[in-house]
């Protein structure tokens, strides 16, 4: 899958600068921070348990989840990002991995947070990724997905000259993402639209793996 390699290489190349640029991002984007807080509250309401921040980057959001009392760990495709996350947040667990094939047990998590990380997954691969999320969540487990809103794929370039690296970023209508979630077996519970009047609106969808039916 070429897009996986391109995404990993791009974030390896910009890891240090990205970590610096996003260090206080959740302090500046309070509506996005509120989504992280709500996710932590929803996990606490079901009794807590392990939470995976999938596509964690340098680990800033994982660290916030832990400050909020969640048993959170991070997974990212980029080894350079994971190296920074481990260095800056030594009390947390971080692993290199891909959301396309999570090395986690079935029904092993209380929550999955995919915070603007699904934006690198092409449409044809999204159902498989959401299937992975559904598999690793226990019944009643919580999923929160943040993403760019729109209906286009934008080629973003990082670096310069012969070392320029490229990755597509996919902008999607919330209704499309919600449809994918339902098809994967989730119940969609809430939709938060962020900055609808801005050039780059965003959205957060909160969903749940339904509790197992009584026997």
In short:
By secondary structure, this protein is of the alpha/beta class. Helices cover 37% and strands 29% of the residues.
Strand content: 25-35%
Low-confidence stretches: none
Main sheet characteristics: 7 strands, mixed
Please tell me the overall pLDDT.
92
Instruction: Please work out how many helical segments DSSP would assign.
Output: 7
Q: How many beta-strand segments?
A: 9
| CATH superfamily membership | Vaccinia Virus protein VP39
Number of domains: 1
Instruction: Please state the structural category.
Output: alpha/beta
- The run of helices and strands is HHHEHEHEEHEEEHEE
Which quaternary structure do these chains form?
Answer: single chain
Radius of gyration from the alpha-carbon trace, in angstroms: 16 Å
- CATH topology descriptor: Rossmann fold
Strand order of the largest sheet: 3-2-1-4-5-9-8
| CATH class placement | Alpha Beta
Q: In the CATH classification, which architecture applies?
A: 3-Layer(aba) Sandwich
Q: What portion of residues is helical?
A: 25-40%
The separation of the N and C termini measures 41 Å
Choose one word for the global shape.
Answer: globular
């Amino acid at each position: 899958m070429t897009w996986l390699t391109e995404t990993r290489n791009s974030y390896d190349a910009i890891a240090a600068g990205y970590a610096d640029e996003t260090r206080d991002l959740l302090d500046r984007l309070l509506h996005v921070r509120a989504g992280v807080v709500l996710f932590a509250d929803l996990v606490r309401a079901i009794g807590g348990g392990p939470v995976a921040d999938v596509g964690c980057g340098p680990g800033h959001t994982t660290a916030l989840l832990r400050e909020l009392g969640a048993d959170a760990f991070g997974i990212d495709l980029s080894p350079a990002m994971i190296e920074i996350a481990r260095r800056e947040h030594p009390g947390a667990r971080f692993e290199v991995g891909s959301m396309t094939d999570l090395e986690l047990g079935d029904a092993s998590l209380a929550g999955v947070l995919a915070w603007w990380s699904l934006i690198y997954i092409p449409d044809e691969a999204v159902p498989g990724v959401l299937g992975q999320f559904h598999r690793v969540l226990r019944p009643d487990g919580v999923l929160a997905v943040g993403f760019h809103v729109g209906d286009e794929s934008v080629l973003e370039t990082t670096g310069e000259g012969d070392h320029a690296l490229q990755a597509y970023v996919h902008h999607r209508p919330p209704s499309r993402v919600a449809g994918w979630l339902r098809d994967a077996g989730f119940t969609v519970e809430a939709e938060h639209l962020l900055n609808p009047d801005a050039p780059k609106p965003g959205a957060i969808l909160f969903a749940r793996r339904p509790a197992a039916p009584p026997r």
